[in-house]
Request: fold
Amino acid sequence: MDRTNRFWRIVLLALPLTVFGVLVVWPLFTSFYYSFTNWNGFNESYDYVGFDNFRKIWTDHLFYGAIVNTAIWMVAAIFGPTVLGLTLALLLDTNIRGAKIFKTIFYLPICLSSIVVGQIWIWIYQPDWGLLNTMIESVSGEKFNFAWLARPNSALYSVIIAWSWQQTGLAMVVYLAGLTSVPSDLLEVCAIEGASTWQRIRRVILPLLTPSTVVVIALSMINSLKGFDILYIMTGGGPFNSSDTLAMFMYNESFKKYLMGYGSAISVVLFLIALTIIGVYFRQLKKVDEIYG
Amino acid sequence: MADVATIHTKRFNPWPVTIFVVLVILAALFLTPTLGVLLSSIKTTRSIALGDLWSLPDSLYLGNYIEVLSNPSVHRYFLNTLIVTVPATIASTGLGVLAGYVFAKLPFRGSNLLFLVVIAGMFFPPQVILVPLFRLFNALGMIDTLWPIFFVHTALGIPICTLLMRNFFATVPNALREAAILEGANEWKVLTRVALPLSLPALAVLATLQFTWIWNDFLWPLIFTQSDEMRTIMLGIVNLRGQYTVAWGVQGALSLVASLPTILIFLFFQRYFIKGMTMGAVKG
Reply:
């Protein structure tokens, strides 16, 4: 029995693990290796440069800009889609009429490509006839043609808002799933005891939603590290690198400037940040599991 | 019941109405961007440039769609995207079925750790493996073909597929497997004849999720393809932006046409889609 089991484990796992190993795990490790070289993407040969790439990182102001922007993106991701998603979930969980249609409307952006989302929002921010400026004009009564995506001060935030529009549905879905596990008799008891709606949300529902919150925040942080496609189409990291994130910066250095060695070093930093978040996330999940079963 | 009804009629509860109104406003705000593309696609570029994009049209202009659908490049993009998306969806789901079955039904020492390592794969930004994969496929002479996109999506789909299939197979009673084995079936027979027929819902979840992600992907075709013949649809949108710099209506029509497959899948298989999203998110 044991031997046949072992045989089948090997047979069934061979293909998936080989593909995963060759195309995901192995590249991850070779990324570390290339970060110590100056490979340029074309030549077969390259030199071993030791810690040069990492030394360059610490003095590269573009890198600092990318780190700061990624951090801004993360914070915005935690507060924007999470809070809005929670609000929507709470509103939709009240057996409201048409809840199903509302849910579909809020989910819909999830199934769109970031490229299409970016395209849509470029038009909202379009200086001459974009929706945002048109609305500002109709309120103020004056001509307004601010180029949201072409100004260093507003480009990053404009992209983050577009991105949040797409991500809110995901947060809402996770919270809605979490809300189904809040016992309704508990809420009835609260109502009978005279707890206000606000008290019920703050003292009962939110604590019970902790597992969902951990998931949503971790996902937001991880997804903000992946923020690339929508930036690529909306600003390309510009103007003057003002909306560069680490993912964008890594792509530009590797595939625009063909500094693949340097790009690998950036990807190592990106990996370490992601690893930290994932590590904290798994630990929190375990803690949450212990408390909430 | 009658008592409840009288209480309700006596004291008017303003909450449901308020919530409903708030939701309608939020839904309208949420729909506006999508509505914008829809509007742009049925208007002439001239009227958009004159600031007429955000008003309801008095006539339906189909010229943008004709322009998009008669463009041979667009046909090429669509075909390429299908050639990558369908096989990669099937392959990643298939590999997830194999691995998920072992993790659920044939656990071994260290299998939990191995499972965790595989699952972790879905959380990392793809940039982390960009350079080595480029070098690998460059050495294999596969740059500017569709092969690397297929392989990479198959590999990157393994974590989510394994996760969902393991969770699903875990709900298939062990007694079923044991009974089949006592009757002389081997694991392959148990998997294909007993477990798989039961897991059609899970397969539907994965198929919709994977199809959507791969169809919508932009980064991998950007890295691996160079010539226009090999572009996928999302890259095509970016490419055609050069060709139609100010033809906003055409761009809108193209965006909609490119999103149609995933929107249709989403609307028809919404239940599966959402289930996959939450399962992937919550259990990760």
Notes: Chain B has one domain: 65-283. Residues 1-7 of chain B have pLDDT under 50 and may be disordered.
